[in-house]
Amino acid sequence: MALPQSLRTSVTPPELELVASQLLIEIVPLISMEKTAFISGAYGPLRPPNKAKIPLWMAVNLKMKKKCHIVAPEWLNVDYLQDKLTQETTGPSFSSLPFRFTEIAKVILDVASDDVENPDKLRSLLKDLREARQAKSREGLKTLDHSELSLSNLCSMEINEIRPYFVQSMSILTQLVRNPGPDPLRNP
After folding, report:
1. Cβ atoms within 10 Å, residue 18
2. SS3 content of the chain, % helix, strand, coil (to 5)
3. Quick one: which of 134, 131, 137, 128 has its CA closest to 82?
4. pLDDT digits over 102-121, tens only?
5. pLDDT at 7
6. How do the domains of the chain map onto residue ranges?
7. Which Pfam families does the record match to this protein (predicted)?
8. Topology of 73-178 in CATH?
């Protein structure tokens, strides 16, 4: 059962994964299947060993039934993530990553770790990347201004994590700007 909106502060990570599961991903089918129509669109035909693009939710379903291999996105490899981690730890700004990289990587590593090279190293790099980006987010929030916050290249999960803090902080800052209160240095 979903919580009432008044009790929810943000979208849950599983809900973000559900949204990300609509994105198309490549697979190598192990079965033949004609073009199939769903509410979200028609996908197929699937003809082994030709690659096909289908939604992540469908790829997960086929993978769990051992009817396909999931082809990892080009960014889900050790070299790419190591390069992004280096950028995160040496530069002041966020490196550019796919908007839903966290969710997609988690789903693929949970369901199809046998389809990616070096899954343990990938998990470690993703964890390090997340920690480096969270540290930058915290630094950015320290410079919070009542008029704006500029943290470009944030991903959906990161935006979701800081949203409750950001909304509450902006509300307080806006109230302080409108009603600054008495000046403690001025004599009454």
Report:
1. 15
2. 50, 10, 40
3. 128
4. 999 999 999 999 999 999 99
5. 46
6. 11-71, 73-178
7. PSF2_N, Sld5
8. Methane Monooxygenase Hydroxylase; Chain G, domain 1 (1.20.58)
The residue type found at 164 is P
* DSSP alpha helix (H) spans, the chain: 13-20, 56-64, 78-90, 101-111, 119-142, 156-178
Cα torsion 101, 17, 169, 132: sign: negative
Is pTM beyond 0.85? Reply is no
- 21 CB-near residues (< 8 Å, 6+ apart): 55, 56, 57, 60, 107
Specify the amino acid at residue 59.
Answer: A
Determine the number of helices (DSSP H) and then strands (DSSP E) in the chain.
6, 5
> Helix (H, G, I), strand (E, B), or coil: what is residue 35?
coil
